[in-house]
Amino acid sequence: MAAPQTIQRGIVKSVLSGDAVIIRGQPKGGPPPEKQLNLSNIVAPKMARRANPNVEASVETKDEPFAWEAREFLRKMVVGKEICFTVEYKVPGTGREYGCLYVGKDPQTGKNVTEALVNEGLVEVRRGGIKPSDDQAKLCDLEDTAKSNSKGKWAPDAQSHVRDVKWALENPRNFVDAHHNKPVQAIVEHVRDGCTLRAFLLPSFQYITVMLSGIKCPMFKREGDKEVADPFADQAKFFVESRLLQRDVEIIMEGVSNQNILGTVLHPNGNITEFLLQEGFARCVDWSMGVVTTGAEKLRSAEKASKEKRLRIWKDYTPSQASIAITEKQFTGKVIEINNADRLVIKTSENQIKEVTLSSIRPPRMADDGTPKDNTKRIRPLYDVPYMFEAREFLRKKLIGKKVNVSVDYIRPGNDGYPERTCATVTIGGINVAEALVSKGFVTVVRYRADDDQRSAHYDELLAAEARAQKNAKGLHSKKEVPIHRVADLSGDTNKARQFLPFLQRAGRSDAIVEFTASGSRVRLYLPKETCLITFLLAGISCPRVPRSLPSGTTEGEPFGEEALSFTKELCMQREVEVEVENIDKAGNFIGWLFVDGVNLSVALVKEGLSKVHFTAERSQYYHTLVSAEEEAKKEKIKIWANYEEPKDIVVVEEAERNVNYKDVVVTEVGEDMKFYAQDMETGPHLEKMMEELRTEMTDTPPLQGAYTPRKGDLCAAKFVDEEWYRARVEKVSGNQANVLYVDYGNREVIPAARLAALPSTFHTLPIQAHEYTLAFVTLPEDPEAKKDAQEAFLKDVLNQQLALNVEYKNQGADMVILLTSDKTTDIGLGLVKDGLVMVEARREKRLQKLVNDYKKAQDAAKNARLNLWQYGDFTGDDAVEFGYKR
Q1: What percent of the chain has a predicted confidence (pLDDT) above 70?
Q2: What is the chain's percent helix, strand, coil content, to nearest 5?
Q3: What are the φ and ψ backbone dihedral angles of 343, each rounded to 5 degrees?
Q4: What confidence tens digit (pLDDT) does each residue in 689-720 have?
Q5: Which of 484, 520, 601, 681 is least crowded, fewest Cβ atoms below 10 Å from its Cβ?
Q6: Are 244 and 157 in contact (CB under 8 A)?
Q7: Distance CA 561, CA 221 (A)
Q8: Partner residues linked to 740 by β-bridges
Q9: For residue 129, what is the DSSP state?
Q10: How far apart are CA 473 and CA 468, in angstroms?
Q11: Could you tell me the pTM of the whole model?
């Protein structure tokens, strides 16, 4: 160092107290040398000192009055600024130097720091001094003036100017949460390394240690008694010191690591974290990137720029090369299947099937608790791995059948027997599916090596979502017991399946989820309410077989077997469906009907020409619908009916006469479009007996209100407005209300679910008594007024009347009938035609022509008489538009 009284220059690095500073030189290829200078002739109030836990005699002290104000006055005046100084005295032994400090490069023009402190009453002049100087008298005069003006420490209230410093932080997590990621004013007191510093928060004077979120700088390591620096550790520390040490900053507290706070430090020129990355003094780290709130993408971009320039810690950086080129970066499609919790099968708009893996996430894994494994028990990952089922269900409910956008991030090559995988970011409605999974705690984020760039384009968002899930203890991060799914697998177990059959038969329609499709007519179902897995075969159809791999070899499939499988898979795979179980086969497979969004899958396959109607369907209520669908497929010659030809060697002999077989009925309900319900008079006594027994049992053993939960398709007991119990079928459930059909009378009602009860099994045996029919040979006019008149006349003629009914023909499975009065002298439909209330529907069947002609003659007579809807003439001709009618 220069000899005493020699003018020296430097930059103030920091202020220790109101009378001591650290001065550094100009940097030349690395951190410059430093020295401490104590201001001569003055004594500043002592600053509070933290107790050193490693020194037994160390105790915590408090500020002397105005110690902080003196330090702050000096800090704001000199820190970071060029100064000049002279050393007046050096203490023998300790080497401590005392001198005079001036702001600026020249003592003649610069501001004397000592005089400024004395003038403000922040320090005390040493009367006599360490070494008398010519300036001491001036300092005494300034002090006397400050005392007379009661400035600074000479003020009457000086004792109140003492900080309440909080050195320890009791609960860092609560402290961080209380600040809600808002910037807090602070002063940086110490820089430990490039990414760790200590600061006072203002105005609370809470002392905290802050680790910069999202990055890591080269560190200092302790090896024995020596401190060894990583390459560029000194430069990184100096970079931060020269910009932040004892500067006014803002700190955003974002997380906690051990007892240290993770945060972002902002100074007037910007985010110090970004600058460290830009200059190659730091690298991004995944473990704390998730808590960054100021834009993780900015940090990644800054790191990328320094990598490309190969700055400092990146001087030997070599970019990682993708081993497989991405042929299609982005595409859209419909999700048709979900495997585990991270793989989706997607059908693109070009009908291509693609499987993608969600980038940078790891699905749940079987926990290793150290207990011996039972090798005899078959592991079912979906149900046995904690949170695997919840993750799959979350994706299934959100994505199955929905259109998604796929952005491919990278291709993971196959290794160790695992196939190549396309890893992508999948979004729906702007929501990142992987991020949603992570935020629920159903999956975790993969951690990569620092030099591995093959990761999700939204990796930082995934880390942030994981941090939130960990903070809120969700899913895999929860300390609660993991959910357990005890699922009984009835597939292949004939005895268990037979025991379960009566429950499913009585349940009517049961909710299920399709877990697997083996062929067009064979699926594997999960029944949530019953918590069991079953193999389910579609009833009423014969579906082409698909190829199968067996130990003895591969069996060939039938034509259109693969198409039928694809149709069923796309329509119902992993969707919520309803099933009606009818029977069971000898292998323990359940047989019945499956409905997807109300569509009968058996009928849908037949309609698409992918199945044929099986003779066993004849005894089902869906037989006529199946036959109609098959006839339509044959007519259009699609799929299996492509080469179908109508039989030419068979002569169809049409019936020459009507089939007349009248039966006595009572009409119990009249609906729209000439539809009505009627009971057969022959079974009337059986119905009355059954109703009497039902009401007796329901009275003797009244059901517990609310114990029964109605489900669509259930046959149950319902209490009508007359407070009597009747058999009813549940058609719809909406909250606490249910739409029911009284199956023995045909009327419908919306009633509270509390007025429903389970129907005892003994009352299931009597067939449904009210059958639906439609009046034959007539159609209603489209004019609302005329239609209303016809409906009212029909209602008046038939409701609660004993009539004779004969089925004349079928129309789309519905029985089309004529109704005669009980003495068989008056045709109800013909009477409506004669009154001009309805129109005649022409039929081509030869056996019906005599009856049709009678109806047409009656219609002509009504037209001529201008009765009711014919009052303005024949509107079925060219004058239909004139009179406002439609044909």
Answers
A1: 92
A2: 30, 30, 40
A3: -125, 135
A4: 889 988 888 888 788 877 788 888 888 899 88
A5: 484
A6: no
A7: 68
A8: 730, 749
A9: -
A10: 8
A11: 0.56
pLDDT in tens, 608-626: 999 999 888 887 888 899 9
Alpha carbons 62 and 137: distance in angstroms, whole number: 32
What's the chain's Rg over C-alpha atoms? 45
Please report the beta strands in 74-203, taking only residues with DSSP state E, as ranges in sequence order.
82-90, 97-103, 111-112, 124-125, 184-193, 196-201
Q: Is 553 exposed, middle or buried (0-12, 13-18, 19+ CB in 10 A)?
A: exposed
Contact of 64 with 46, CB cutoff 8 Å: yes
How far is residue 492's CA from residue 304's CA, in Å, rounded to a whole number? 57
Distance of CA 771 to the CA centre of its chain: 47
pLDDT band, very low/low/confident/very high, at 131 (cuts 50, 70, 90): low
Q: What angle do CA 640, 642, 645 make, to 5 degrees?
A: 110
Q: How far apart are CA 857 and CA 835, in angstroms?
A: 12
Tell me how far apart the alpha carbons of residues 560 and 716 are, in angstroms, rounded to a whole number. 41
Give the pLDDT score at 375: 55
Stretch among 207-211, 678-682, 842-846 having the lowest mean pLDDT: 842-846
Q: Helix, strand or coil for residue 787?
A: helix
| Cα→Cα distances 237→190, 220, 406, 546, Å | 11, 10, 43, 69
> Quick count: other Cβ atoms within 10 Å of Cβ 434?
25
Nearest to 462 by CA among 489, 481, 488, 443: 443
H-assigned helices in 245-353: 272-278, 286-289, 296-309
Which of 666, 688, 691, 690 has its CA nearest to residue 678? Answer: 666
Tokens of 185: 């004013």
The number of beta carbons lying within 10 Å of the beta carbon of residue 311 is 17
Total count of residues recorded for the chain: 887
127: number of Cβ within 10 Å: 10
Residue 885 to residue 515: CA distance in whole angstroms: 53
CA distance 580 to 713: 9
d(CA 618, CA 620): 6
Q: Quick one: pLDDT band at residue 377, thresholds 50, 70, 90?
A: low
User: In 51-135, where does DSSP find H-type helix?
Assistant: 67-78, 113-119
Residue type, 498: R
**47 CB contacts (<8 Å, ≥6 apart)?**
16, 17, 63, 64, 67, 68, 71
Closest to 286 measured CA to CA, from 425, 477, 459: 459
The tokens 């995944």 sit on which residue? 286
Instruction: Name the residue with tokens 């693969």.
Output: 562
Comparison of pLDDT for 662 and 650, the residue scoring more = 662
